[in-house]
Design brief:
Layout lengths: L5 H4 L1 E10 L5 E2 L3 E2 L3 E13 L4 E8 L7 E4 L1 E5 L12 E3 L6 E3 L7 E6 L10 E8 L6 E11 L12
Antiparallel strand pairs: 1-12, 2-11, 3-11, 4-10, 4-12, 5-6, 5-9, 5-11, 7-8, 7-10
């Protein structure tokens, strides 16, 4: 029995461990996208109470990051846990607006994608930023990323910085 393709075709990284971000905007780990065909990440949202959660994607100039700019991205909002309905792929062209989840989106996930070739010169890094509404009392989220690297297999260089 060979190794499943699942373990070889993507480079899986956790960008944000499950955490309650109700009190502050939170950025994921920064990812070096210079060796990626596409950047993809999945945001898993728990219960969203009394307010909203805004998801934006920022291009970064370095690993700190010193400078960030919200950028457009593709996304799919999937149905809640226990169902099997995928949303349509949608292009979020108004970068600063992002995608908003509300109380009706409890237990849903959002998959986002960015083509690194569309990023501005001098910006080779990406992070996902989650901004909860001001009156939110609880907001449990996690972010993982099945990254499509240029170099496949077990020798994939590290991308999380």
């Amino acid at each position: 029995m060979g190794i499943p393709r699942l373990l070889q075709d993507k480079h899986y990284v956790a960008l944000l461990a499950p955490v309650d971000i109700a009190n502050a905007a939170t950025g994921s780990d920064v990812v070096n996208v210079q060796a990626l065909n596409w950047f993809e990440a999945r945001i898993l949202a728990g219960v969203i109470t009394t307010d909203s959660l805004v998801i934006t994607v920022e291009e970064c100039d370095n690993t700190t990051p010193s400078n960030t700019t919200a950028i457009p991205f593709w996304y799919k909002k999937n149905a809640a846990v226990g169902t099997d309905t995928e949303g349509d792929a949608t292009y979020q062209s108004t970068a600063a607006t992002g995608v908003t989840l509300t109380a009706s989106d409890d237990g849903k996930s959002v998959t986002i994608a960015v083509d690194p070739r569309t990023m501005d010169a001098g910006y080779g890094y990406i992070r996902v930023k989650l901004t909860p509404g001001g009156s939110m009392s609880v907001c449990l989220v996690a972010i993982d990323a099945p990254l499509d690297t240029v170099y496949k297999g077990n020798g994939t260089p590290s991308v999380v910085v």
